[in-house]
Amino acid sequence: FKGGDTCEYLLSSGRFLGEKVWQPHSCMMHKYKNSEAKNCLIDKHVVFIGDSRIRQLFYSFIRLINPQIKEEGNKHGNIPFEDKSASIKVDFLWYPEVNGSMRQRIKSWTEGSVAKPHIIVAGAATWSIKIHNGSNEALTQYKINITSIAPLLEKLAKNSDVYWVLQDPVYEDMLSESRKMITNEKIDAYNEAAVRILNSSSRNSKAKVKVFSVSKLIAQETIMKSADGLHLPESSRDTNAMILMNVYCNKIMKPIDGSCCQPQPPLTLIQKLAFCFFTLSIIGYLIINLIHRNNFRKNKSCTDLEGGEEKKPAISTPNVSTLEMLLHSLCKLGLIMTYFYLCDRANLFMKENKFYTHSSFFIPIVYILVLGVFYTENTKETKVLNREQTDEWKGWMQLVILIYHISGASTFLPVYMHIRVLVAAYLFQTGYGHFSYFWIKGDFGVYRVCQVLFRLNFLVVVLCIVMDRPYQFYYFVPLVTVWFMIIYATLAIWPQIVQKKANGNCLWHFGLLLKLICLLTCIYFLSYSQGAFEKIFSFWPLSKCFELNGNVYEWWFRWKLDRYVVFHGMLFAFIYLALQKHQMISEGKGDPLFSNRVSNVLLFISVVSFLTYSIWASSCKNKTECNELHPSVSVVQILAFILIRNIPGYVRSVYSSFFAWFGKISLELFICQYHIWLAADTKGILVLIPGYPMFNVLVSTFIFVCVAHEISQITNDLAQIVVPKDNSTLLKRLLCIAGFFSGLLLFSAMQDQSRH
Fold this sequence. Notes:
Low-confidence stretches: 302-319
Domain NXPE C-terminal: 22-91
Protein name: CAS1 domain-containing protein 1
GO molecular function, one term: N-acetylneuraminate 9-O-acetyltransferase activity
InterPro entries: Cas1_AcylTrans_dom, NXPE4_C
Pfam families: Cas1_AcylT, NXPE4_C
């Protein structure tokens, strides 16, 4: 199922998603903004030559450059358009018939001294049918004329982009009496002649006149909405103009969500080195495995013929076992990364645009919720936010976020606002979990920090190398990494206040609260001082981690959007652990968290708060305004959910093993979706099996989940090897890692220099 020539597919095939969204076969269309269209067409001359249908396409095209343009003036004459700011010229030349006049105009562009247009869009036939009353002689003459024009178009196609637009079908019932002779049978005959002649003239030539036949497919679906039965409705003309823009501009602008007509990006130096490294790892693993098998055969247990004793095989040394485990993990990782590259960097598999409908989002949500409830089990412990419960929470949130991404639900504001709460809830758990660990254990050692940083960042660092993407592109990992370091710094700096110390003297609790107030003050200051924030993260080498598209604005936006929720998680952990220590809550199996009266009141308030937030989020009209309020109010729904989930004893004592399983690999699921479930860096959908959308989703989802689970195991295995508990060995490994990143920065600088 190779993607093949996506330009050919874009010009010839596709289908409608809904009523107005056109989906080309196998690739994704970018929706060009006016500024992007101007940047692409700067200093370009575009010519539309043909009849009234081509004139309408001309108007739709120039409205992509200047939306204020209206259809006015002489309809049966030439129409010039110029955008002086970008030096763009777009002309419509009125030649309603393929005849000697059109041939003469086209021939004039082939002569040496005349400036040739960069893009030529031509097409005509309906006037010939109308004027000659649909006679066969007119069709014969059309064939003769287009045969004489074809070599000229072919000559122009060597240096310019030339498109021949086939005739759209008509809606015969709506045609006026003067146009009744224009039938779909006649139009098909003219189109067949044009395709046959143009294809035959370019058979043995590299240059090729591109046949724009996709307009026919679009017209078949929409011509019934035509005002006169002949001309397409405005939405269809706009779609055709956008297709033209994609065909020409995608190879120039290289938009992420415009995979049609884009060449495969060349391998960078870092990607080549990564390929060599994984290849050597695979070879090394195979060699060690062969040696191990060979030794096993030699030392295989055998019965001593004289003594009747069984000889034991030699036991392999731990060093060999560790090396084999390392190479085995790298071997699997190399194969998985090859799949990543093939899915989202090589033009091997197809990609399609997302299209949101309420059913595509809500039906899968209901389905997974039913599955989750079906797999209900008892928890090992009944504490608030116990391990099974937090895994379950992460699991169902991750599944909802995945459905949100693949369905394109970000276009529906109420869903977007609720998903923002789920992302905030992840960060809340980051604050809660890490604070609880440091507060209870008092373990501020380097080993703990390195373990957490490795598990969070390993996959992303590998993907940055293999997929040639900046670290900030996978925004959630930088977010949780930075917040982990902030939590660590807050609690580790002098004076180190932990639960054991605070139990001896209650004043230490006030000291910790003072630390938290200082943290909140810093967060508040940075959130309203964009300049200071950008200066901090613009210093080299931090800038290499947090820049996206040449600046740190995206990082500032992501950080600011959930700036308070980690603090809320830390504060909740502190209050909960204090209540637990003073035995002010009951966490026995089946017991309500507080007394019946207090539990009922809190439960009522939580349900009301939860529903109130949902009503507010569902009534949002402006995304910017709602995003401004989100950091302060998202904690309301998070706390309401925690209380609803934990106050009733029975609810706290059970969990969904289905959701918990996904929760254990939630980070890998979130990161892997970028390239092997979605496509074009999350902008589209990966198509492994074309023509069967549901079956495709099932197959790609199965592979995606298996890969995420495998990467989770690989990360855990490598964490034990790369981050050992022995401090002296760990220090050596850290020096090696520092050397690795220094080399990475050097090669990255070399790449940037070669690109510029």
